[in-house]
Design goal:
With 451 residues, the chain is α/β, with parallel strands linked by helices. The chain is 40% helix and 14% strand. It folds into two domains: 210 residues, P-loop containing nucleotide triphosphate hydrolases (Rossmann fold, 3-Layer(aba) Sandwich); 236 residues, P-loop containing nucleotide triphosphate hydrolases (Rossmann fold), CATH 3.40.50.300. Helix 3 crosses helix 4. The radius of gyration is 26 Å and the shape is elongated.
Length: 451
């Protein structure tokens, strides 16, 4: 974990109160991470901040510690932290409560799927610092059961995901209704122009942007491998891996909720103890699954990307990308679920023949060459009849799809599009048959008219 720590600074150097430092020291932490070392001093000066750092680098503590230092224990509802999912909101709440144990500040969580009455009671009892999802926050605010009049700190965590799942309007309404003088902090693993533009609409002109490039856990702590596989063989390959590799605590990421459900049932039918977590699962069941995961009673969790936000469990040893995400940033988020607390992690990714270019884009973003995992023990299944017939038809026409399959499964056997030896000799009389495409075509040099 030393590569994400700023060993030239200690928490004692950051100017935090003793009662706030007590919460940090209970963790055994001495040195802050880079994002903590840079963001905390700026936030302590009361400035608005845009913070960008990789998953697993301590962003929650980076915005929590200044709030704990500056908050007034005599004022309720003075901090509002927004998170895109219930799981992440619960995770942030727990971490803030642990960091606040040396203070007199109480943290309240307000999320969907839980008793609204219990959350109202919690707000009335204390609720100095509030963590919630935009939907439930807007609901309570609309019912006049939650007030923004005392808000001094507004934080948006994982802003990129909130925009992805359509919380833009809620975010604007919430921030627009905080009328008093307050400090605003946006933190996220990715921070494109759209997010930054939204942030600055609700920030003071002198807001600072902090970007840390260290802590690339994808390179230093996660052993990444990819396994080439045809789509119809993915279930069998997953089962083979789980049975033969015997990974400890594993999270399997799927693209859709439907796939999550199907894969979970498939593994259960095969005798694998697996549980699912996705957006349609009732909150009480999601809580039970997460608690089993944290207690080490669950070996395999099948998850959708959205439901896994907030999945911060230190002992996750393996991440399996059953479906490769279209967005390389999502891949980085996924494998960041492992390699926690200085431990090494393993990430295996299933890549179909059409996804070679996507794999290359992921390598560019993560800054690591992802090597192929050779698995001779696995025997691929029979090609489905419709796929086989389509391939035979394409081969007869001599027109295959243009894909990046060479990256994943090697060059095609029919390298010359079905041309006979006589036809090749007629086309290349000197006998020198090109083996590769030209380095640059005319299309790359000249633009078409009308563009």
């Amino acid at each position: 974990m030393s590569d994400i720590l700023n060993t030239g600074v200690t928490f004692d150097d950051l100017g935090l109160r003793d009662d706030v430092l007590a919460g940090i020291k209970s963790y055994g932490f001495v040195h802050p991470t880079d994002i903590q070392a840079e963001l905390i001093p700026v936030a302590l000066r009361g400035k608005d901040v845009i913070g960008q750092a990789r998953t697993g680098t301590g962003k929650t503590a980076a915005f929590t510690l200044p709030i704990l230092h500056l908050a007034d224990p005599d004022i309720k509802g003075q901090a509002l932290v927004l998170a895109p999912t219930r799981e992440l909101a619960v995770q942030i709440t727990k971490e803030m409560q642990e960091l606040a144990q040396g203070t007199n500040l109480q943290v309240t969580s307000i999320i969907g799927g839980e008793s609204m009455r219990d959350q109202q009671d919690s707000l009335e009892r204390g609720g100095h610092l509030i963590v919630g999802t935009p939907g439930r926050v807007m609901d309570l605010y609309g019912r006049r059961q939650l007030s923004f009049k005392n808000i001094r700190f507004a934080v948006l965590d994982e802003v990129d995901r909130m925009l992805d799942i359509g919380f833009r309007d809620d975010i604007k309404k919430i921030l627009g209704n905080i009328k008093g003088d307050h400090q605003t902090v946006f933190v996220s693993a990715t921070m494109d122009r759209e997010i930054e533009s939204l942030a600055r609409q609700f920030m003071k002109d002198d807001a600072e942007k902090i970007t840390t490039v260290s802590g690339s856990l994808t390179v230093s702590l996660v052993d990444q491998k990819y396994l080439p596989v045809e789509p119809w063989d993915k279930r069998a390959l997953l089962l083979h891996l789980l049975r033969h590799e015997e990974p400890d605590t594993t999270v399997v990421f799927c693209r859709t909720k439907m796939t999550v459900r199907k894969i979970t049932q498939y593994l259960k039918d095969k005798g694998i103890s697996a549980r699912e977590i996705h957006g349609d699962l009732h909150q009480s069941k999601r809580n039970r699954v997460m608690e089993q995961m944290r207690q080490g009673k669950l070996d395999v969790l099948i998850a959708s990307d959205l439901a896994a936000r907030g999945l911060d469990v230190e002992h996750i040893t393996h991440v399996i990308n059953y479906d490769l995400p279209d967005d390389p940033e999502v891949y980085v988020h996924r494998i960041g679920r492992t390699a926690r607390a200085g431990r090494r992690g393993i990430a295996w990714t299933f890549v179909t023949p059409e996804q070679g270019q996507l794999l290359t884009e992921i390598e560019k973003l993560s800054g690591a060459m992802i090597e192929q995992m050779h698995y001779p023990d696995f025997k691929p299944g029979r090609v489905p009849d419709d796929i086989r017939e389509q391939r035979e038809s394409d081969a007869k026409r001599g027109s295959g799809r243009t894909t990046h399959a060479d990256r994943v499964i090697g060059p095609k056997k029919d390298e010359h599009h079905g041309m006979s030896e006589q036809e090749l000799k007629a086309m290349f009389p000197d006998g020198k048959i090109p083996q590769n495409m030209p380095k640059r075509g005319i299309g790359a040099k000249f633009r078409r008219r009308g563009r």
